[in-house]
Amino acid sequence: MKIRGRIYSVILVLLLVFFVWLRGVQDLQPSQGSNQPSIGTGMQKETLYVWYTDEALTDYMNSMALSYMEAHDNIRIVPTLVSAVEYVESINQATMQEQAMPDLCLISNDSLEKVYLAGLADEITDPEQIVTEENFPQAALHAVTYQDKLLAYPFYYETSLLLYNQTYLDEMAANKIEALKSQQEAGEEVGIEITGGSDLIPKTVDDILNLADAYDAPDGVESILKWDVSDIFYNYFFAGNYMDIGGENGDDASICNIHNENTTACLQMYQSLNQFFSIEAKEADYDTVLQEFIDGRTLFTVVTTDAIARLEAAKADGSLQGEYGMAMLPDVSADLKSRGLSVTNGVIVNGYGHHKEDANAFASYLTGTIGADFYDRTGKLTAHKNVSYENDKPALAMQAYEKSVSLPKIMQVSNFWVQLERTLTGIWEGEDADQALQSLQEQMDVQLQK
């Protein structure tokens, strides 16, 4: 964080502390000239504790708390940064002790079954009726729904996209255009028309392979396609359209479809890419791969939405080599479609809380009045779809989010992602895709007691 940002953060925190202290002092002072308390100071002020685990949200959470308290002088909002380690257990422990228990918690959608069954999340009342299709995509609504109940206010999300070097594609397109002109002048028939680099953005993995065959890479370009093959977030799209764990809301334990003809075909294609691009799973971690892209050493990669802020920072400081572009994840082939993974972070109301009405009101305010400054200040993308950005990348990310599948909520298969990650690593390194998927299917079936 820059020095100016740190100073701003400190000032904001001090203002929040002073504001809460001042409210407390006013509560103890009667108004002058009257035995009655002054307006807004004689009533019992309710304190809402709001827990979150990501430090990047601190400035934003503090500013939203201040603005809300200015309009509601009978409420104190205390945003509280806590450790993400054993987060749900910490919520439960603080709730049982009832001292400074969290009234609201920011939490990922895959934990909703766990917190609901523990009584730590109530069905939201949504007083302003903001959690609707008018404001949020279906992916967000599915993510915060459990057993037909809305358990959270959608806040922000993460999903995956295809990242490409626009400058390299433009150069490649210019060379192709010259070659096509020469063919036309020689009287040859030309079956394709190219106007610029955007025409070369791959729609399928097959397109990437065809482009790689024809691409005369400039100096410094080491990889046509490279991504973190060890992380499920960047691999899931290969088979994601044909896997179903828990149904559309991720909460139906009777649905577990992992091993089928399409997932096998998709992951056989996935395996073949190792022979073409020779990516070592142990060496291609996400941060390294993204840095290689920034350095101009890679043409295509798969990233999550957090990359946008990092790329914009690199563009601003001049370290980004060329212009970058983003696109929807490519389909596996013309016949096999892809579907990426997403995680939605929402705001839950503690089922044991004593101020649920006020908690719902603040959660509605926090997630319903959100704007483009949320991205500017946190580097995260709001799940609210009616937000305009100067940068076109967040709008594209929203399209990917709308198409994505959310992490399931079923506690019995909470280890599914770890097991799927291991399965994909095995397939990447040569294991039989059909047998590996069958083994994973059987394991999950046992866990679900089917």
Keywords:
single chain; alpha/beta; D-Maltodextrin-Binding Protein, domain 2; 2 domains; ten-stranded mixed beta sheet; 43% helix; disordered N terminus
Short description:
The protein is α/β, with parallel strands linked by helices.
Reconstruct the topology from this structure.
Blueprint: H1 3-27, E1 46-52, H2 58-71, E2 75-81, H3 87-97, E3 104-108, H4 112-117, H5 138-143, E4 145-146, E5 149-150, E6 153-165, H6 166-185, H7 205-214, E7 223-225, H8 232-235, E8 244-245, E9 256-257, H9 261-277, H10 286-294, E10 298-304, H11 307-317, E11 324-327, E12 341-349, H12 356-368, H13 373-378, E13 381-382, H14 393-403, E14 405-406, H15 416-428, H16 433-448
Parallel strand pairs: 1-2, 1-3, 7-10, 12-14
Antiparallel strand pairs: 3-12, 4-5, 6-10, 6-11, 6-12, 6-13, 8-9
Helix pairs in contact: 1-2, 15-16
Task: Explain what this protein looks like in three dimensions.
Helix 1 runs parallel beside helix 2 (58-71) and helix 15 (416-428) packs antiparallel against helix 16. Strands 1, 2, 3, 6, 7, 10, 11, 12, 13 and 14 form a ten-stranded mixed β-sheet that branches. A two-stranded antiparallel ribbon has the order 4-5. It has two domains: 3-158 and 343-402, D-Maltodextrin-Binding Protein, domain 2; 160-341 and 410-448, Periplasmic binding protein-like II (D-Maltodextrin-Binding Protein, domain 2, 3-Layer(aba) Sandwich). It is α/β, with parallel strands linked by helices. It has helices spanning 3-27, 58-71, 87-97, 112-117, 138-143, 166-185, 205-214, 232-235, 261-277, 286-294, 307-317, 356-368, 373-378, 393-403, 416-428, 433-448; strands spanning 46-52, 75-81, 104-108, 145-146, 149-150, 153-165, 223-225, 244-245, 256-257, 298-304, 324-327, 341-349, 381-382, 405-406. Strand 1 (46-52), helix 2 and strand 2 form a beta-alpha-beta unit. Mean pLDDT is 88; it is low at 1-42. The radius of gyration is 25 Å and the shape is globular. The protein has 16 helices and 14 strands.
